[in-house]
From TrEMBL:
<keyword id="KW-0004">4Fe-4S</keyword>
<feature type="domain" description="Radical SAM core">
    <location>
        <begin position="84"/>
        <end position="299"/>
    </location>
</feature>
<keyword id="KW-0479">Metal-binding</keyword>
<dbReference type="InterPro" id="IPR007197">
    <property type="entry name" value="rSAM"/>
</dbReference>
<keyword id="KW-0949">S-adenosyl-L-methionine</keyword>
<keyword id="KW-0408">Iron</keyword>
<dbReference type="InterPro" id="IPR058240">
    <property type="entry name" value="rSAM_sf"/>
</dbReference>
<dbReference type="InterPro" id="IPR003739">
    <property type="entry name" value="Lys_aminomutase/Glu_NH3_mut"/>
</dbReference>
<protein>
    <submittedName>
        <fullName>Lysine-2,3-aminomutase-like protein</fullName>
    </submittedName>
</protein>
<keyword id="KW-0411">Iron-sulfur</keyword>
<dbReference type="Pfam" id="PF04055">
    <property type="entry name" value="Radical_SAM"/>
</dbReference>
<keyword id="KW-0663">Pyridoxal phosphate</keyword>
<dbReference type="InterPro" id="IPR013785">
    <property type="entry name" value="Aldolase_TIM"/>
</dbReference>
Amino acid sequence: MAGLIRGEFQEIISPFLKEKMAEVAATSGYGAPEYKALALQYQRDPQEVVVLRHQSSRHYEAVMAPGADGPQPQDGPHLRGVERLYRRTLLVEPTIRCAAHCRWCIRANYEVADLSPTELESVARYAGSPALRSDITEVLVTGGDPLVTPKLLRLLVDELKAHAPNVTTIRIGTRMPFQAPSRVNDTFLAIIRDADPIRVEIGLHANHPVEFWPETTDALNAIRDAGATLYNQHPVLAGVNDDGDTLAELYEALRAHRIEPHYMFHAAPMRGMEHHRTTVDELLELHRTLTTSGRLSGRTKPKPALLTDIGKVVLTEGAVIGRDDEGKRLLLRTAYSVEDRRRWNPTWTLPPSAVIGADGRMAVWYQDRKEKPDPSPA
């Protein structure tokens, strides 16, 4: 994932993806929608050098800003690779490396790093500490792609079993079945099986129906047979999946492979990535098209969501409570309490984009895509 060299996000495409892209080009041509869907996701674009003033260099920049420390256990050091935005879930990043670099990556500007065995043990002890036991019930393992470092993933799961009996669910976010399915091997499948009695859920990231290759299907079946539940979340990306027909086909493919739908994200305002974004209204129109046209079963409908500075916001009725038309910003209502957030993570600071209401709940400004992007430097 992370891979900045001299300020540029390096292009990394796995051998498997290169082979599949060549196959699609040979059968359908470079101009085919299926080829473009892959090329736009993985090939570097000259537009990435355009950085707008409103864009962030980091995912949740206000929460985990460059140099910021993670949560701090009582009488212990700050924890690297840990985020806590929600009451029930602790996010852990054993590695920031991936098999391929998605050009719209929300963690593209993170430093390349792996957690040490000692750090992973500290994370597990933190998750199971008396202060957290009444709250934390699940750990989301992300990164980077955890399957890049299976030894670290195994160690984290074992340490959680040993030190955090309150954790009943482990979620593992990965794109490996779509980028390098051979990594879904006996070593990884054994981690899933040996996690019992902890429930394992695998968060996938399929963006287009072309990604369901035979090797990918075999990997997904193996994960399911090992005892894990599969779910999918994805951004809506301009030129990749920002049309109703493609999304309908994607969600039909997900159901055919017994993968639960989760979030349908608006592409976040990351530096150099404006060309990948739709507007929020376009996202909502796509969601309306999918969910009110009778094209999909109710069991396959996703939740439209935004990644804000204070956490995910699902676009339910009444979520948007204000607009800044000149700056193309939306003010979003949340039920996040600032007191709860500070209790969960005492090092957390309120970002400038957030507003505290009289009831202590936070609203947050979110940057929409500007209709005519201003190419002024950040």
